[in-house]
Write a structure and sequence with these properties.
mainly alpha
């Protein structure tokens, strides 16, 4: 006989606020991001600016699904997925440019381009792009139409 909990498991919306869910999702994405970044730079010898663009493409499909289903819980709006997907690509693309541009600027300002230096510069660029992404996803991509109930 399969195990059935006596109490229902909490849903993502019952657990915490969207900004906290976003923080958890982005912390996990950042771990994957740093790992991929270091793999491309250290193992494959790729330029840090170039690796920033290469590794992001594959992560965006996964990130869209997670943000839509867990973070901003826009379930029930399947008829709007194409609009959300297009807006997600636009917001994420701007976030990627902010992240890459921020990393490039920090790299040029400090003059340090070792792997350690770039890893120390990445948080500054990441904070800028994560702030942009949260605002863009919450108020632009996954916003609920005015007719929908909370």
């Amino acid at each position: 006989m399969p195990f059935r909990p006596s109490l229902p498991l909490p849903t993502p919306t019952a657990c915490c606020r969207p900004d906290l869910r976003f923080g958890v999702v982005e912390a996990l994405n950042t771990l994957v991001d740093y790992g991929t970044f270091n793999l491309l730079v250290v193992v494959f010898g790729m330029n840090s600016d170039r690796s920033q663009l290469h590794r992001s493409g594959g992560l965006h499909h996964q990130q869209f699904s997670v943000e839509q289903a867990l973070t901003f819980v826009s379930g029930g709006f399947r008829h709007r997925w194409l609009r959300q997907a297009v807006l997600f690509v636009i917001v994420s693309g701007i976030g990627l440019l902010l992240n890459t541009g921020g990393l490039w600027a920090l790299n040029r300002l400090t003059g340090a381009d070792s792997v350690l230096a770039v890893n120390l510069q990445k948080p500054g660029a990441s904070i800028i792009s994560l702030t942009w992404n949260f605002i863009g996803y919450r108020y632009f991509v996954f916003r609920k139409p005015s007719g929908d109930a909370a």
